[in-house]
Structure formats: structure tokens, C-alpha cells
Specification:
It is built from four helices and no strands. About 65% of the residues lie in helices and about 0% in strands. The protein has helices at about 10-25, 30-50, 60-70, 80. It is mainly α. It has one domain. α1 (about 10-25) packs antiparallel against α2 (about 30-50).
């Protein structure tokens, strides 16, 4: 049984949760459970990035998105190229 560790920081707790979610996803759950786990996984990543300050563009994707936003192109998908109309 997993016990909550109140002596850890929020960031440490979120990183531990991320590992638990990743393990659950790796076990290939059913479609409904996978959807919920994936959503929670993404939300947990977002929270970790918020705490760590992931907006510093320290990776290639972050740099590209930062450059697009600076150029006034905030969307990552161009509708004319993606088939979305």
C-alpha cells in the first residue's frame, strides 16, 4: 500500500506520482483507464513544469515554441497543413 509522504516537498511528491502514473500506463490498462491515466499524467507534468519554471526554453521544442510566440504565431499546428479546416 502506498502511503503519502508528508515530509517531501510538493515537487518530490509530484515526481513520485509521475512515476506511479507511468508504471500504470506501462501495464497497458483498458482504453477508459488509459485515457484517465494519460490525462492525469499530462496534468502532473504540467504542474512539475510550473514549479520548475519550464518556460525557460531549455530544450529544442521549448525554444521553437518560444520563438513562434515571440513572432506572434502562438499555435503549434497550422490548420492549412494539418488537414484541419
Amino acid at each position: 500500500m502506498l502511503k503519502a509522504k508528508t515530509n517531501e516537498s510538493r515537487l518530490e511528491q509530484l515526481k513520485e506520482l509521475l512515476e506511479i502514473l507511468a508504471d500504470a500506463i506501462d501495464r497497458k490498462p483498458g482504453a477508459r483507464d488509459l485515457a484517465q491515466l494519460s490525462k492525469q499524467y499530462r496534468e502532473t507534468i504540467r504542474e512539475i513544469e510550473d514549479i520548475e519554471g519550464a518556460g525557460d526554453n531549455d530544450d529544442e521544442i521549448g525554444e521553437i515554441l518560444g520563438n513562434r510566440a515571440a513572432d506572434g504565431k502562438p499555435g503549434a499546428v497550422r490548420k492549412d497543413r494539418s488537414g484541419l479546416r
